[in-house]
Amino acid sequence: MLTHLLNTANTIISGKEQAIKLSIACLLSKGHLLIEDLPGMGKTTLAHLLAKLFGLDYSRIQFTSDMLPADIIGVSIFDRNNTEFQFHPGPVFSQLVLADEINRATAKTQSALLEAMEEQQITMDGKTYPLDDPFFVIATQNPQTQAGTFSLPESQLDRFLMRIVLGYPDRKTERGILSGADRRELLKSIKPSFSTEQLLAMQKQVREVHISSALLDYVQDILQFSRQSQAFLTGLSPRAGLALLRAAQAWAFIHNREMVIPDDIKAVLPSIILHRLVSQDDQKQNESQVMALFDALPIP
Q1: pLDDT per residue over 112-166, tens digit each?
Q2: Which CATH class is domain 208-294?
Q3: To pair with 183 at 20 to 30 A between CA atoms, which of 209, 213, 223, 255?
Q4: Residue closest to 236 by CA, chosen among 198, 203, 269, 208
């Protein structure tokens, strides 16, 4: 079902099949995606590509240090004719919102997305406004070693179902990028592979992918290990466990399986837990360190 979509995506972003699959799994899981990497690695292109392939309304918010929450959610302006305040929606009212360089904004501005990402709604002047369905936030983040960045609070990080890194392309792929057509021009020619209704139907099908009791035990073992391990300051929350299950279901669905197998959980595990775990010396864990610890757990 998704073969054509994956093939199309790989023609635009070459050599990143794993990252593309994880991104699609995140959307099928009704989750939000955080892409962390250096500038110029294709983060924004990937977000725009997903919007095009799934036929989603798309808005881009460029985060800066002087932004205010109203620049994201909207503002109420007094209407003299009606003698009342009228709400003018901000760019968050879209099916796919790209929060570009989210960590260049302050924590106050970042927090404007918390209710939207968790409740799929925003509250303004005591009134609640529902957001579109489906609704996704794809945020890009520059490494914290770069100037002008602010750390994302743990509560904000936990709202993202997945965090992925694109990384440098290999030499062959990079040669194709340098000598090939401009990626922006290629994006213009992309046609949607699915309608909004089809996407919603697939999200429902993902929830129906079977998970055995043995695999639920395995996920609980992962959560318990993270809480008891001396390597981490705090363990994984139940929300992280749910994220792991939903992502594994989506990964199985992408590979045309009707039930989750241990390899599905292992495939999505790093993208689910790496941004949620902090080591005892207050440093984010890299993938090899974390996977070395979790590989010791018995697999059903």
Answers
A1: 888 899 999 998 888 899 999 899 999 998 776 666 677 787 888 888 999 998 8
A2: mainly alpha
A3: 255
A4: 269
